[in-house]
UniProtKB/TrEMBL annotation, chains A, B:
GO biological process terms held by the UniProt record: cobalamin biosynthetic process; methylation
Name recorded for this polypeptide: Cobalt-precorrin 3 C17-methyltransferase CbiH
Keyword S-adenosyl-L-methionine: yes
InterPro entries (alphabetical): 4pyrrol_Mease, 4pyrrol_Methylase_sf, 4pyrrole_Mease_sub1, 4pyrrole_Mease_sub2, Cbl_synth_CobJ/CibH_dom, Precorrin_MeTrfase
Record keywords, A-Z: Cobalamin biosynthesis, Methyltransferase, Plasmid, S-adenosyl-L-methionine, Transferase
Database matches in Pfam families: TP_methylase
Organism: Peptoclostridium acidaminophilum DSM 3953
A GO molecular-function annotation: precorrin-3B C17-methyltransferase activity
Gene: cbiH
Leading EC class: transferase
EC id: 2.1.1.-, 2.1.1.131
Length: 245, 245
């Protein structure tokens, strides 16, 4: 008999007020909470009566195995991810490993506000039309596939949201990405750069495709590049949908 | 003196437990709540002491003008959108109209869990890699631009999330979209169809690109089409990121 349960929980951008009730409840119901140390720290005060398993980066497989092991013992576990756990987060790898191992525990995915959307809210309304999210990390994806996505997204006039814009501290990824996009889009296209959206240390700035590389861009940053109709107003970046036609 | 305030609030998929604390607080602090009738109904019990302005579809500009008028009288207003208000929601049009009118009221965008992400959580983990969201509604966008986006997104192997898959009840949009995507992607590609994700009447099914048109698809449906590596498992649709390399 196995009544263990795994919640994979998106905790949103970090500020407690942007967590959903379901995420708070899933953590509250869990005996153990597993996650990347930095995210565990964001919710530490919720975990006083919990077993905490904090991990370093790149140890995603280990985290999932630990969750499975605990669940097999009948315990309830929350595996936490920042933003939405279903977007470059822990949901996929957890299901992959569970499916392979013939896991019989119940697994529930609890979505959260993704990083792209909390960053967008800090900037105005840049994601109001069709958009593409692209991670510039080539740890798990060939760089050529990333270049192809950048090129196609720019060509088709998607608003583009870049995750992991400065992978392993390498500056050339964001430079190459900017140059590919600029083949299809004007220098003056508004670009929003947001670091630590909706948590301590939030910083948001509006610049242009031509100027964006003169700003600090690091691993905690999300970059949103407007489409051909996006404009910067006093109230932030706006991608119009055309209601006024 | 004008101390009015407008919150543009994403209420998430509908189930109360998937609203963020900030969204609940914004509505709680508001004197008046404005929105599409169907969404107002989802949160009716939170609005007992509020002035309620419910509108029919396609009256977005009117809703924003009503919000501005109330704020100019010093009142606090919540303009609500389902999902994330920043994704095909009210944030953009509200900022557009406010910027034009030289509005001096404070406007705050409160993000929510977008429809794509709540649908994804019902299906497993389909959005785990780069994805594009495309609305098939050609009310405000030329169909040729939509076709170009479908083609480019399919070509570059994005996971594709379709909003408004059956615009004004016309079946041909989703058929055309499917056919464009199938030029670049195998018939057996997993497709998830979710209606009323995470609210009353939720229905989710997993099918394939080849078979998807034999399922009911309407305005309340979100369709998620996997990339070339997406697979269907017993635990749902999984788009792997490659951790196991």
């Amino acid at each position: 008999m196995n009544e263990g349960k795994i919640f994979v929980v998106g905790i949103g951008p970090g500020g407690r007020e942007h967590m959903t009730g379901a995420a708070i409840e899933a953590i509250g119901r869990s005996d153990a909470v597993i996650g990347y140390k930095t995210y565990i720290e964001l919710i530490e005060d919720m975990l006083l009566d919990k077993e905490i398993l904090g991990y370093g980066m790149k140890r995603e497989v280990e985290r999932c195995r630990a969750a499975l092991e605990l669940a097999e013992k009948g315990r309830t576990v929350a595996l936490v991810s920042s933003g939405d756990c279903g977007v470059y987060g822990m949901a996929g790898i957890m299901l992959e490993i569970a499916a392979e191992s013939g896991c019989e525990s119940d697994i529930e995915i609890v979505p959260g506000v993704p990083a792209a959307n909390s960053a967008a809210a800090c900037l105005g309304a840049p994601l109001m039309h069709d958009y593409a999210t692209i991670s510039l990390s080539d740890l798990l994806t060939d760089w050529s596939a990333i270049e192809k996505r950048l090129d196609c997204a720019a060509q088709a006039d998607f608003v583009i949201c870049l995750y992991n814009p400065r992978s392993h501290g390498r500056r050339e990824h964001i430079e190459k990405a900017r140059n590919i996009i600029m083949k299809h889009r004007a220098e003056g296209t508004p670009v929003g750069i947001v670091r630590s959206a909706m948590r301590e240390g939030q910083f948001a700035t509006v610049t242009t495709l031509g100027e964006m590389l003169s700003h600090d861009i690091d691993m905690l940053t999300t970059v949103i590049i407007g489409n051909s109709k996006t404009y910067a107003s006093e109230l932030g970046i706006i991608t119009p949908r055309g209601y006024k036609r």
